[in-house]
Amino acid sequence: MKRSRVTLADVAAMARVDRAVVSRVVNKDPTLNIRQETRERVLAAIDELGYRPNVAARSLRTSRAHMFGLFIPDFANPVYAEIIKGAEAEAASQGCVLVTGSAIGAGLGEYMDRIGQGRIDGMLLAGAGDESGLTAQLDQSAIPWLMLNNRSRGVKRYVILDDQQAAAIAVEHLVRLGHRRIAHLAGPSRADTAARRSAGYSAAMRDAGLPEGPIVAADYTPAGGAAAMSRLLTGPEPPTAVFVANVASAIGAMEGVRGAGLEIPRDVSIVAVHDLELASFLHPPLTTVRMPLAALGRRGVTLLASLKPDDTVAEVLSGPIELIQRHSTAPPAR
Amino acid sequence: MKRSRVTLADVAAMARVDRAVVSRVVNKDPTLNIRQETRERVLAAIDELGYRPNVAARSLRTSRAHMFGLFIPDFANPVYAEIIKGAEAEAASQGCVLVTGSAIGAGLGEYMDRIGQGRIDGMLLAGAGDESGLTAQLDQSAIPWLMLNNRSRGVKRYVILDDQQAAAIAVEHLVRLGHRRIAHLAGPSRADTAARRSAGYSAAMRDAGLPEGPIVAADYTPAGGAAAMSRLLTGPEPPTAVFVANVASAIGAMEGVRGAGLEIPRDVSIVAVHDLELASFLHPPLTTVRMPLAALGRRGVTLLASLKPDDTVAEVLSGPIELIQRHSTAPPAR
DNA sequence: ACGTTCGAGTCAATCGTTTGACCGATCGAG
DNA sequence: CTCGATCGGTCAAACGATTGACTCGAACGT
Fold first, then answer.
1. Is residue B145 pLDDT above 70, yes or no?
2. What average pLDDT does this structure show over B288-302?
């Protein structure tokens, strides 16, 4: 039953019309004028033969691929999983496919080479800095692109979340619980999200009339978080609460607290950014700030689809940011 | 600097040769005979103009897309993240792109429609049953396909891991620790992996000369695992160890143990299948069995690339399966 | 000296769709 | 009755790369 493959011409022959008619029927061309009866003959033939347009031919002719690219650092990171879901859903609702690639092994450059010319209509770069002038290369390739969730200096094509507000919400939560010595376990200084969360922390502390507690940076890993937390706890007046920039660090941070012989949340409260499912499995379950990651993915694709070659985009996606209170935060001990 | 786009003809004109020569140079056609000097002129022109073959035109002509598809249930599941990584790496090493889609919103059928005809050279189906005769539809579409990590009755096109052996390794570990009443918290009966792990459990128990402890099935979720574990613990002679088919269930199972006022591993040892990073963040860190998920992804792509239309594939991937001992297993209390 | 092979490329058909231009009836208006 | 519209389509030129067939001269063998 494996018929070679069905083309427009086959359908046209069966319906006894020109290929052009079939094409216009398939594409629902509004300028087409035909009898209802003819249209039905065409539709019947399409159905009968199981015709499906050949994507290659179509995109050769129209130079639209109906496909978007998304580049991420790592599939194992649940933050990107959320973004992918949103982007995929939006692409799907536009009748497009999303092809997601990761930095695994090769970098973005090699990846773009494999993608080749004319295969995608736009590229989303999530969580990638502008290593080695790639953005310039992308500009040359004449396909629209956008950075997602982080920026790079000098690049005016991004959409990000309001990490600053997320940080503020976390800090306000701690303040409302009665904490006054609130430290910040920041992310790596080169990460744009880390910088924005740190800014939010500082602003919120200022607003609350509190002195900025100690701030120490760590990379977004458990090991980094553990080391940083140890440092935070060995000061003369250790904090009673810590705003951690990232869940991976927070996992290590919690280990660090226990390592110092202290208990969460009795001795130290912890709150971190991004409400990953994993947070509820930690001990104690981690209080987090949830941000609309899927919406970010959706928005990225939407913008991409309507981007003119030289447009600049600098959008902070507004959307619900909420505190998910679990059991890693509590009022300070008396 | 945004030149429209460079075609073979442009390169040919610049190098003062025919398009055919350029094409053969690009594709390293071994039958081509040209002077070194000419080849260099062509290469120089390619470089100068920044020529990149148009994928659409190429695949229209050759009907090869240099792209593989991978369909998964959910990007947020770290099991699939591992598989994706392997598949992507292998695809990359073949100069191909991997496009991964998830069941989000729509099913495989709608997804295949969006992919369209001629966009991919092969399709990998991970963790999907054969809902509504899709495999038949795939067969008709004349693109090679393969199920990954699970089978469907009557379908002879799959590559899976040796879940049976993994289960045996888990059980043997418990036996070696001195456990005799070893229960099994199985996966949902419709899941192929669940069935194979259960079979492995039974075989290993038999080999150890132990009676099969109670077996109770749960779906692969924390809630399901918690409920199932409660049932296991309320028998007359509760088990001292439980082999759990899946980490998500194990997370719930651990909750269930605590809910019964017991402690892990003092009162109950727990071991689960698939060594996800997350396992080490649980409390206590979960002992697991690691299986070569990435290798499975790689193998899938490799097979796909060399699959003839009517080949049948039934492969159990052999590869290192190892116990990762953490702190959820210990000898039974005396 | 003449047929043959070889080196170095050239020619042009083809892949399957799309789309602007065109065309022959039929119909209504003047 | 004739001039335009309108209806219901048809025609054929792209899109960019691939590839089997072919050509044109020079060198070679005998």
1. yes
2. 98
Give residues 175 to 234 of B whose Cβ lies within 8 Å of A. Answer: 222
CA distance B179 to B328: 14
Averages of pLDDT over each 10 residues, chain A, 334 residues:
76 96 95 93 96 96 96 96 97 95 82 90 87 76 91 91 98 98 96 97 98 95 97 94 98 96 97 97 96 98 89 95 98 90
Q: How long, in residues, is chain B?
A: 334
A332 Cβ contact partners less than 8 Å away, ≥ 6 residues apart: A177, A178, A179, A180, A240, A241, A269
Integer Cα distance of B104 and A94 in angstroms: 15
**Burial class of A33 by CB neighbour count within 10 A (0 to 12, 13 to 18, 19+):** exposed
Q: Which residues of chain A neighbour B101 with C-beta distances below 8 Å?
A: 88, 97-98
Q: What does the pLDDT look like over A270-310, one tens digit per residue?
A: 999 999 999 999 999 999 999 999 999 999 999 999 988 77
Average pLDDT for B277-284: 94
Query: Quick one: B265 exposed, middle or buried, by C-beta within 10 A (0-12, 13-18, 19+)?
Result: buried
Inter-chain residue contact B81 with A81, CB threshold 8 Å: yes
Contacts of residue B145, defined as CB under 8 A and 6 or more positions apart, other chains included, come to B122, B123, B124, B125, B135, B138, B139, B157, B304
Q: Using the beta-carbon criterion (under 8 Å), do A106 and B92 form an inter-chain contact?
A: yes
**pTM of the entire predicted model:** 0.94
Report the nucleotide nearest the CA of residue A58, measured to C1': C17
CB pairs under 8 A between A and B: 167
* Structure tokens belonging to residue B332: 């039974």
Pairing of strands A157-161, A145-148: parallel
User: Given strand A123-126, what is the order of strands in its sheet?
Assistant: A97-102, A67-72, A123-126, A145-148, A157-161, A313-317
What single string gives the DSSP state of each residue in A10-32? HHHHHHTS-HHHHHHHHTT-TT-
User: Is there a cis peptide before residue A284, judged by omega within 30 degrees of 0?
Assistant: yes
**CA B248: distance to chain centroid?**
17
